Amino acid sequence: MTVPPDFVAVLPLVAAVLAATAVLLVDLALPGRRTAVLLTALVALAVVALAVIAIGGEERVAFGGAYTVDALTTFLQILFVAIIALTVMFGPDYLVPRGLPVAEFAIVLIFAMTGAMLLAASTDLLLLFLGLELMVLPGYLLAAFHKSDGYSTEGAIKYFLLGSFSSAIFLFGLAFVWGLTGSTRVSDVAAVLSTFAAGQGTLSPGLAMGLAFMTTGVAFKIAAVPFHYWTPDAYQGSPTPVTGYLSVGPKIGAFALILRLFVEAMGPLRADWLPVVIVLAAATMTLGNLVALTQNNVKRMLAYSSIAHTGYMLVGLAAWAAGRMEGLEGLLYYGAAYSFMNLGAFAVVAALQKRSGVTSNLDTFAGLGRREPLLGALMVLFLLSLVGIPPTAGFFAKFYVILAAVEAGGALSVLAVIMVLNAAAAAFYYLRVVVYMYMRDPETEQPALRHGRLVWGGLAAATALTILLGIIQGPLLDIVGEAARAIG
Amino acid sequence: MSDSLDAYLILSGILFAIGTFGFLARRNAISMLMSIELMLNAVNLAIIAFGSFIEPLRADGSVIALMVMAVAAAEATVGLAIVMAIYRNRRTPLVDEYDAMRR
Question: B101, A154: Cβ pair inside 8 Å?
Fold first, then answer.
């Protein structure tokens, strides 16, 4: 018996669906046994990661070109598995004191990962949309995970309404692009668009409108200014481990969609969309940082800071459009570095909220450095990395993106200057948390909390990656270089 | 039955605009959900129109339209569940009263 090559290519996806099912069955067979559920989830995720690596060894094209396994696919899928594994580890300490189910949390997360993995491998507009929906629908459920809590459901309904609104906009654009180019395959759309770029014929108004609608839909998903209104409330309201996931998983997923859409499908028209991305990037990082300066709630502050980080990543995309391959590499490096440092920061916030009723206000951090020295030190590391101070992952991520923008020259050097100014302004609100941790006394002295082994394990992994990516850049640079060459 | 593709696309555009307006103007979460459904149906009308007027797109058109319907159904399910959950907390379906985090 031979296995059809198409099925071999989608094996990681099958493994991911089976992983979620396995967790579901274990929870059914052993109700209330959290350790068994978590162990199953982590082992299953390791199996998925192995499947991704095993399948990703060679380039595969399956289902008539709709599904592609290349270096970019493998890189992004591994990143998604890592993000989900870390989130599963950070979850229980927050969920259990609040009486929220841990098994369902892990299952919904793994289903969301399935969507993100499909997104990373799709080279067909319809499949990209399907992957996007499979990723965000579990995200809406996770945002409303604390369903008896007014904040959680309020954040969820805002996330859901604006999310499906943007999906509808994206789909309307997709209908016109498909109808007027005759195909949903990314490569076919690129072929049609490259004839316009070569000067044969002009872009019809319908097709231009379709591409514009798709761009708008994606801009909502990555929370680029002016399409970011849902972000602060969705992030502040959600349970903290979920917020950590939402600030990383769907964002990298949407960037996977952007890479396939802008770089592969709309690559021939890069000169036309470059100004749009430059304006989006400048507005996104500036507004995100300015509003983050005024926040007193750490979750809300990190929400606005995640908007700013979206802007930094868009600079990498703009640098690619201006002819620098390093821009794409910088974007991917930034995606990986941002994932680990941001998840780490949210994990510390979640760990502090282990005692039910503790808010995520800045006051919670007062005296943390003295009360829990290790947790405080880790928070400082993640915040310094988010600021971009060497030798952390965040510094080199920003460095590569800015370098690519400077080398591209022209309007991009202005963008690089804006980015440096933004990074300096951002230092102020990140370091404000550090000031609270080490220089303010808490109003009421609280005893130190005991954190679970899983949380420490996850924090150790996030810390190690944040430091390692800052000291040894070579291996990841090779990987992202190969991934960038696969599409650019 | 008009035999012009443009007529159907314009109708689809008008439906989409009505849906968008409804989403932006209505304050009731259920009405906003209905407006999103209207936008998705406008998308489906455009897809079916392309499929029936352009011969090579015919087979693809039906598949894409079915896919859009499935996604719309999944979205409505999740959406109504979230609306139910927040209604139990707040006793109102009006979204402008969901402002606890902005105060």
Answer: yes
Q: Does A158 touch chain B (CB under 8 A)?
A: yes
Q: What DSSP string runs through A15-58?
A: HHHHHHHHHHHHHHHSTT-HHHHHHHHHHHHHHHHHHHHHHTTS
Domain residue spans of chain B = 5-93
- What is the dotted CATH code of the domain comprising B5-93? 1.10.287.3510
- CA B23 – CA B26 distance, rounded (Å): 6
Q: Which residues of A touch B42 (CB under 8 A)?
A: 172
Residues of chain A neighbouring B47 (CB-CB closer than 8 A):
175, 178-179
The SS3 assignment for A297 reads: strand
pLDDT digits (tens, 9 = 90+) for A43-98: 999 999 999 999 988 888 988 889 999 999 999 999 999 999 999 999 999 999 99
Q: Between residues 160 and 199 of chain A, which touch chain B (CB distance below 8 Å)?
A: 160-161, 164-165, 167-169, 171-172, 174-176, 178-179, 182, 184
Instruction: Kindly tell me if the per-residue pLDDT of A118 is higher than 70.
Output: yes
Question: Residue A407's pLDDT is what?
Answer: 92
The secondary structure element, H or E, covering residue A68 is: strand A67-69
Chain B: give the shortest CA distance to residue A16, in Å: 20
Give A147's contacts in chain B (Cβ within 8 Å). Answer: 85, 88
Cα separation, A248 vs A171, whole angstroms:
24
| In chain A, where the domains are located | 5-487
A204 and A168 in contact (C-beta within 8 Å)? Answer: no
Pick the closest to residue A321 from A190, A193, A221, A412 (CA basis): A412
Taking contacts as CB-CB distances below 8 angstroms, the residues of chain A near B98 are 154, 157-158
- For the stretch A341-359, pLDDT in tens is 999 999 999 998 888 778 8
Check CB contact under 8 Å for A179 and B78. no
Distance of CA A443 to the CA centre of its chain: 36
Q: Which of A62, A65, A21, A68 is nearest to A41 (CA)?
A: A21
How many beta-carbon pairs below 8 A join chains A and B? 116
Supply the pTM of this predicted model: 0.95
